[in-house]
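Holo model, flavin mononucleotide. Inputs:
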Amino acid sequence: MLIIHARIAILNGLSPKENREIPPLNYERVYMIKERFPHLKVILNGGVKSIDDAMQILALVDGVMMGREAYHNPWILHRVDELLFGESPNTYSRIDTVRDYLPYVARQLSDGTPLQHMTRHILGLFHGVPGGKAFRRHLSENAFRRDAGLSVLEDAIARVEDFSSIANREEQTA
Ligand SMILES: Cc1cc2nc3c(=O)[nH]c(=O)nc-3n(C[C@H](O)[C@H](O)[C@H](O)COP(=O)(O)O)c2cc1C
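Output:
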């Protein structure tokens, strides 16, 4: 199996971060490798930003790897099992998901892991939805403090819930 980055890496001259942005994406090259070596499993990596795009790419290769978009906007993956693997639709909301994370965070806090080490990975969970900015801001401004505990995350969740209850009320009165 080959996982092929669709950008060429320029090792002397560009940093790893620059190598993820500057060299142009060349999906054709990856498709050609699959054509030339059909018996190999070929996974395309680089620049994929939606499940729709992934599905189109999957018509030509065996797999897709998503890096930054999955990290910065993880909710784009919430229908992946349904759309790609034929599983039943995921009925979890973003809030359900972050609530499910709480026992893990509590356990890690009691082992001495700083809160910020866990919350930094979920800053993008509410990306693009009402309250998402307030969630992110609350965590950015509070999770780094030395005494930051579970309540910081619970308060951040409450800020999103404030927005969703306003949205629901508006929907009911509309
Ligand atoms: C949070 C994060 C961690 C990563 N860690 C690694 C790593 O440990 N090793 C590696 O080879 N690439 C790593 N990458 C790079 C990705 O595997 C991928 O090649 C790169 O992000 C390009 O794909 P993208 O355009 O979908 O982000 C990481 C990317 C992200 C966003």
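The chain has a mean pLDDT of 93. The CA atoms of residues 105 and 111 lie 10 Å apart.
Archived with the compound record.
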